């Protein structure tokens, strides 16, 4: 709870800092805020469930863990916005404040205990993202991305709200445990279809936010058009928070066997489709940014496996799997987008060929991108491997062997496209001499952030025992 | 604890190597590798004394740390005789491989040497792991550095070739991981009761799976080993990768990495799914024998020295696989000692191929000839290593191949007879190469060719000493692995 208050208050304060027109101050302040909130957040660890606003929000270990992941992601992401500072970007304070506000939404998604809070969280998160998607105002692609994201997002928010309304109609409450109770002990059996339709509509609504197929069509275009810094935020924070919300919804609201019969096939189908679309789509891309967009779809698919295999509690193999996976994925993705942003800013291109010769000009960037690609591909020694490992183990334990085999085949496919940037960086020379000669400019601050990310990825990959099973 | 030291030292050294620039990096790397070798020798001396006293055959120098407590996965390493044999091979070859790299000036030297040392950790991890998931983990740790070694410093076609190699091996090992996950869920809880299952080697040995399950689990696990060794028809990545890699990487691949597959079969396949092995034994033997003949025949037609060695390696590894799958003590012991012998010989041959290429700029047999007049030392070294590979009596190859063939013959006389052709065929292609490269009519290079330098001789002398040592007094090496081999066979026959 403290983190929500702090983030909101400091976000507002940050806006006032914008009046001073001093961008140089903004970046350290931003880091300081995020670091402070991150520390405060972990004070709630193992304090037992604390409920706020008449039980509408509950802070427990689950929400602290996911809050920690989104805050950490934001913290390590911020250094890559340094170019805005150097370029004297006019509205930087507003952007940063919007980021902080959207984090508030993300935290609410990890700690809601009432469907209204879920809705509020999603809206706070999304509205900020709609604006940030269009923040590159002079770029048509960015405008297009914002419009697309907003129209589709508004539409699916409607669907989500409609679903909630139907669930409310069928159960007479929006409080999670009460809904769960009336799902198991229905007062009026004829209302069941209404409940199930409401439940499915809610799944679609959140499925859209995490970019699950078949509601993924917006993802590649929006990701490509949005400025890379915010794309990174979208594909990590939004996704992590979305899955935390998903897991909470399934575990706390619809665990009853009868309800499971309705959402489990839907979720399984979405999972298979998402894995297929994400991985096969990524193979065909020529732009690294679009590849990363499809890759983020595919990772939603792996996370769905853990949802399908959940065991009815916010702890245990499945919840831990999602937590570990989100962290490993976020760390690797931030690093990938970070390098992409630096390279794209310097070389003005986002295709694979733009990365050629990077190992010679910027060994550090090449190394960090390699670690992140290997992690996303799930190769041992990186956090991504244990993320997949835990998720797959949870699924096998619950008997979803076919699904895991399919996912493993898909991750074999993914090795193809994750190796392409590595091959371009290390095994091919730049296609013209001028790029070869000029290193991509990187500040110490950014190198530090990249190194931290790479070390974190390797640490997660070597000592997974530190985090596995904490929930 | 010594095993952990053996594991951690190379990777630590690799990290420290970043503080060395240019030529000092190679010296530091060599020093680190020699220290590692000294550690391994100490372990061998300790174990040798233990064996002489008739001590037990279980793993020594054990270290067990609960890696992922909630999943029952532990960082459990230890060395028995067989592991020790391969650790010795690895730690012996790595300094030699590093020395061989001294002749060339690689870009970013410190990174190159760091990757070799990093790979050493992975290799030793594979040979000492006592936990299935740790084994898989180390298996991939060994892959990543060699991919970059071959991909960054390799030949013109390196990107395509190494990509194929990476995909092949990683897909194979994913099957193995799937097999391990399946077996893991069949095991009982850990001692501390934190986890419902555990992945330790002993737990896998104590599984009593029904025969029909073992039939398919066998293939899941074998897929990884089949690609790595490689066995016909999973070998298509091998000749290209060996040829395109820089010489040190080829040595790592053929000298050590190939043994990961054979070791894996002995430790993680035969005793774990004995009924599956029993069922597929003849199929694997036939594939292995096809590989022996196929590799040898293709080697005869090769024009590129490195490619010829690659195919010869395919042929020789076929015989080792056949020996292992004969499930006889002779065959398994033969495979153990032949792993050592083949590692020494193939590294020596690659070293000589590289020496010739550096001097003449070509590996093409047709362009070479008459080199011997100017290079007597090279000729002698080349011939000794070549005869070791051909398996002439008194050389290391003879001990290994004799035992292997005897083992295969014990299992099936016909297969043994066909596999025996390998000795004739390998004499054909290797002596043909020797004759055309070293003897034969003078070529454009024979006048300007220079003999081995002192440094190069220093690399080759230990190898040649070993060729004869293992060939004449193989008993120390055989006794090292004997206990383990008997233990594995006992495990296989038990059911």
From TrEMBL, chain A:
Q: How does it assemble?
A: NDH-1 is composed of 14 different subunits. Subunits NuoA, H, J, K, L, M, N constitute the membrane sector of the complex.
The UniProt gene name for this protein comes to: nuoN
* Signal peptide (UniProt feature, chain positions): none
Q: What membrane topology is given?
A: Multi-pass membrane protein
Task: Kindly list the GO molecular function terms attached to this UniProt entry.
Answer: NADH dehydrogenase (quinone) (non-electrogenic) activity; NADH dehydrogenase (ubiquinone) activity; quinone binding
Native source species: Hymenobacter psychrophilus
Enzyme Commission designation = 7.1.1.-
According to the UniProt record, what class of enzyme is this?
translocase
Q: Which UniProt keywords apply?
A: Cell membrane, Membrane, NAD, Quinone, Translocase, Transmembrane, Transmembrane helix, Transport
- Tell me the organism's taxonomic lineage: Bacteria, Pseudomonadati, Bacteroidota, Cytophagia, Cytophagales
Say which family it is in. Answer: Belongs to the complex I subunit 2 family.
Task: Give residue ranges for domain NADH:quinone oxidoreductase/Mrp antiporter transmembrane.
Answer: 113-412
Q: What is this protein called?
A: NADH-quinone oxidoreductase subunit N
Domain of life of the organism encoding this protein: Bacteria
Q: Quote the InterPro entries the UniProt record gives.
A: NADH-Q_OxRdtase_suN/2, ND/Mrp_TM
Function text = NDH-1 shuttles electrons from NADH, via FMN and iron-sulfur (Fe-S) centers, to quinones in the respiratory chain. The immediate electron acceptor for the enzyme in this species is believed to be a menaquinone. Couples the redox reaction to proton translocation (for every two electrons transferred, four hydrogen ions are translocated across the cytoplasmic membrane), and thus conserves the redox energy in a proton gradient.
Automatic annotation (TrEMBL), chain B:
- Coarsely, its chief localization is membrane
Which cellular compartments is it found in?
A: Endomembrane system; Membrane
- Which biological process annotations from GO are given for this protein? ATP synthesis coupled electron transport; electron transport coupled proton transport
Q: What is this protein called?
A: NADH dehydrogenase subunit M
Q: Membrane spanning segments where?
A: 81-99, 111-127, 133-153, 165-185, 216-237, 249-270, 282-301, 308-327, 339-356, 377-399, 411-431, 452-470
The upper taxonomy is: Bacteria, Pseudomonadati, Bacteroidota, Cytophagia, Cytophagales
Q: Name one Pfam family in it.
A: Proton_antipo_M
Annotated membrane topology is: Multi-pass membrane protein
